[in-house]
Amino acid sequence: MKPFHQLLSKVLKEFLAKVLLRKERSVSTEENTGRFIFSSSHFNSLGAKHAAFMPRNGETSVFCISSISNDEIWDIGVNHVGKNMEPSLKARADIICGRVQEIGLDVIPETSSHPLHANITRWPMERDEKLALAIDLAKASTFHKKII
Amino acid sequence: MTALALSGYQYHLLQRPNTGASKCSDELDKKVQDVIIHLREPITGHVKENLHNELNSIFSECSKVNWDKYGASPISEAALIEAHGFLTALPSWVPNPEVIPEPSGEIGLEWDYGKDRVFVVTIKGDNSIAYAGLLGAGNRTRGIESYSEAIPSVIIESVKRISS
Fold first, then answer.
1. Out of A16-20, A24-28, B109-113, which region has the weakest mean confidence (pLDDT)?
2. CA triple A130-B160-A138, angle to 5 deg
3. B48 by DSSP, 3-state: which?
4. Distance between CA B120 and CA A71 in Å, rounded?
5. Which residues 127-146 of chain A have a CB within 8 Å of chain B?
6. What is the mean pLDDT of chain A?
7. Whether the Cβ atoms of residue A35 and residue A48 lie closer than 8 Å to each other
8. Would you kindly state where each structural domain of chain B is located, as residue ranges?
9. Across residues B105-132, what is the average pLDDT?
10. Is the separation of the CB atoms in A87 and B69 below 8 Å?
11. Which residues pair with B145 in a beta bridge?
12. For chain B, how far is it from start to end, CA to CA, in angstroms?
């Protein structure tokens, strides 16, 4: 039987190899991301509210929209996220990935459901910290109301 | 149309007996009484009543899972009850907040005065309030305070700071 330190070394090496290979590449800094808004209480004439960006299970779902047209962007919101059901899509808040990173979060692709889907991640655990960051995101975003 | 201009609290001048005998006189007297009733109504009471109604309306709209299409939790009854208490305890001079449903099931109350002046509290229903805000000139605040009956002074002070 191998000495314990050799076994431990082997396990650590295998673990590190897995971690290094599983690199989470952030979305490009210049990429514009859109957060679709379905609640009329999550925006007003001044723009999106912090609640529009608050995470669910540590993530905030967004879409990378730099490479598609305005119609295609709204189509994702209506049909993919909203599934064309009530509550209907009301608006959208866009924020550049680099700005998200400046705020202290990150944008990681998560393409299992859609090739342009990503998540804003690295949210803290504490309520007040999350609130503060969500306020920053809302204030940094560009608001677009959906024209019916 | 008949108009009556009043300055200050001169409605007491209106409290004279109706000496007319015609139908028009009765109608005019009724309108004067309506004015007196309106002037006597407490402004803050009505405004707060509207806020409580808005809170109830949002609770109804956000009472199901996934109300925001991102898996939001329903607003909890505990949060609703505590938020009602909070609104009642707000001093009358404090501007009305916007009521915002939180995806976590909490209730948010927001005072927003622009890009760098915004203050939010969230109420969970567990006797704790989380708050965060931008207070202007690069100043920021955030924290968690316990809450039972009296609104923590840091919250009142923060609202006062951004609204002045």
1. A16-20
2. 30
3. helix
4. 34
5. 127-129, 131-132, 135, 139
6. 91
7. yes
8. 42-163
9. 96
10. yes
11. B129
12. 40
Give this complex's ipTM.
0.82
pTM of the predicted model, to two decimals? Answer: 0.79
Closest to A120 measured CA to CA, from A144, A95, A145, A140 = A95
**CA geometry: angle B1, B3, B5, nearest 5 deg:** 170
Place of tokens 């924290």: B143
Token pair 């971690």: residue = A19
CB contacts of B108 in chain A (<8 Å) are: 49-51
DSSP B100-114: EE-TTS-EEEEEE-S
Sign, CA torsion B44/B50/B53/B59: negative
| Residue of B69, B115, B143 with shortest CB distance to A128 | B143
For an interface test with A, the pick among B65, B66, B102 (most A C-beta atoms closer than 10 Å) comes out as B102
Name the minimum distance, in Å, from the CA of A39 to any CA of chain B: 6
Q: Which residue has the tokens 């009358």?
A: B92
Considering only CB atoms, which chain A residues are within 8 Å of B124? 127
CA gap B141, B154 in Å, rounded? 10
> Do the Cβ atoms of B142 and A131 come within 8 Å?
yes
Closest Cβ opposite residue A132 in set B61, B62, B140: B140
Q: Which residues of A touch B120 (CB under 8 A)?
A: 50, 131, 135
CB contact at 8 A, B58 and B99: yes
Mean pLDDT of A111-137: 97
Q: Which residues 43-82 of chain B have a CB within 8 Å of chain A? A: 58, 61-62, 67-72
Measure the CA–CA gap between B25 and B35, rounded to whole angstroms.
15
A21 has pLDDT over 70: no
- For residues A30 and A96, is the Cβ–Cβ distance under 8 A? yes
Task: Measure CA of the first residue to CA of the last residue in chain A; give whole Å.
Answer: 72
Nearest CA in chain B to A49: B100
Give CA–CA dist B149/B152, Å, rounded.
9
